[in-house]
Amino acid sequence: MDFALNEDQQALVDAVQSIRRPFDALPMAHKRDRSWFAADLQRVLAEGGYLDAARAIGPLEAALIVIEIAQSPCVVETGASALVVPHLPVNEVEGPVALISGDLSRAQRFLPVARAALIDTGDDVLLIAVDPAQVEPVDTIFAYPYGRFRTPPSLDSAQRLGAAALAPLRQWWRVSLAAEIAGAAQAAVAFTVDYVKQRHVFGKPVGVFQAVQHRLAQCHQIARGIRFLALRAAFSGSPLDADLAAAYAQEHVHKLVFDLHQFNGGMGVTNEHELHFWTYRLRALQAEVGGAEKAALAIADQLWGPVTA
Amino acid sequence: MEFAWTPEQERYRARVQQALDDLLPDDWFTRYAPQGNVSDDQIEHSRVFCPGLAERGLLVPHWPKELGGEDGEPWEQFILAEEMNMAGDPRGPQYMNVNWLGPTLMKYGTEEQKAAHLGPIARGEVTWCQGYSESGAGTDLAALQTHAERRGDVYVINGSKIWTSYARKADWCFLLARTGPERKAISPFLMPMSTPGIEVVSFPGLVCDGHLNEVFLSDVELPASARVGEEGKGWEIVIYALSQERVGIPRYRSGRKILDITVAQLTREGRFDDPIIRARAGRIVAKLEAARLLTYVVVDQRAKGVPPTPDGNICRIAASEAVLELMNFLMDYVPDCLLGGDGILAEFYRANIPTSIASGTYELQLNLIAQGALGLPRS
Description:
The structure holds two protein chains of two kinds. By secondary structure, chain A is of the alpha+beta class.
């Protein structure tokens, strides 16, 4: 057991942070957006090979990249490309990649900017190319680009990855969403801590009040817990660890979003206050792959066997 | 970063498990464990168990070799603690001796005190209790009122201690008493429990029998040589002793076992197919695992010689949250454990009622995280 980054991992994280830093300050034109997809950052990460880290270095390093990038207020697709695709029987897939489960007529995360989509049909995994012209953006407060197909895409030409790809797709989707929640939660807590130090009420900083301190301390603990569960799931490649990470991460979105918005007060409901760039990514991830409930049931199945009746 | 045990650590865990297999009686889990490790039976059993553990080099493995240890790594000490916790900690009160009392004496004790006490502790021959809390001084320990008055070569001690686990059976007490009027003018004393003037009164409560004792001290005379450290400078010693228990008891370990026992009961009763119950159980495992990893962060820091950080407080609140969820699960689905049902479940529930109070309340931990990790001002 070693919970500190080794030299190579630290260098990787430092490199990702320096790439990310220019995008942490939102351009004026996007200050009031509900989400901002940073196409330039997406390109830099792809061209720099960062999204291939799982194959080139290892899944743990890929998860570190996802966590780091998720701390930015801008949005980049890292989870599917860096953690899911490398564990499926496909060669290179041009990203961004949308992950889709079930009904193709619904709005999907990342679809307006995606070049490819992986579809969980229930009995197969399909890989399709996405034509942006066939996608209409969906207006939402979730802080990701969402869109739906103008007409359901033809699946005749889809690459069929087979039923055996279902388990790794769901497993690594859970790892990726836990890693994204870890990064976004960490950033949202840091943003809020900074705010409560500056914002005064009744002549004192909001952060002086114990009622505020206690709940922020709980949020900090939760964010730390999600981080290590996500990283362990990436390290071990264990389906159980993936379910544990997703269950813990998705269950705690409730508390994180409520508490962090409480302490940002009225400012937190405005778009120009950046909190929503993280909290409404958390909300968007809360229900994916069945949410905490399905992840918890998967844990029970693995530890104590499936339902007998 | 690495989330796997080394082969040496795996072998160490197997060695501890083998020792438990060898040393615990066949009726451990049916007779002893349900009584809790503060029960008279378990304390008496610890007097047999601990010397056996010591013979195998597993009582004080983290101590220096010249004092009976093996110069063991912090990770080994923690693996040992996990396995002991899983078995209901058959070391009884002696977990305190080996974890913090011995190391505190090594650092602050006189040569005479070290010679008198470290050997018996390392051999598992002695039981201690901790005379810290008073009815008006728990989390705010510096508010304690028990008073030690210097009269020539002796101290005369008057006052009372409460919540003193193991006091009925302990041979010695690590006692804190006020030696001056200043708030932190406190000194520790090494007090034989057979000293005239000590009266121990047990009283019933929600926790397991044996936990709740009041220790009355009436003109108890101790030689000045019983004092640890300079007079009135004991606060540093107290902080050091508390820091030796940075991560607390690894309750996530016994928590998993308790959950398994509960699921087995629910399965026998045909109730574990209910998806509501299954999902609750799955979520509790996730919380226990978060507590486990956050605890390992602290053990890792300790192994690397990093001074205490707020991660020690973070792992405690994670463990408290997980244990509380498990206690709620027990009361939702197997409340019969408190009505003559499974004794192990009942013992776990009762023993953990004060989990978020003892050793620094949950709220105190949150204060320390807010100030230490988040940089928020003291309120």
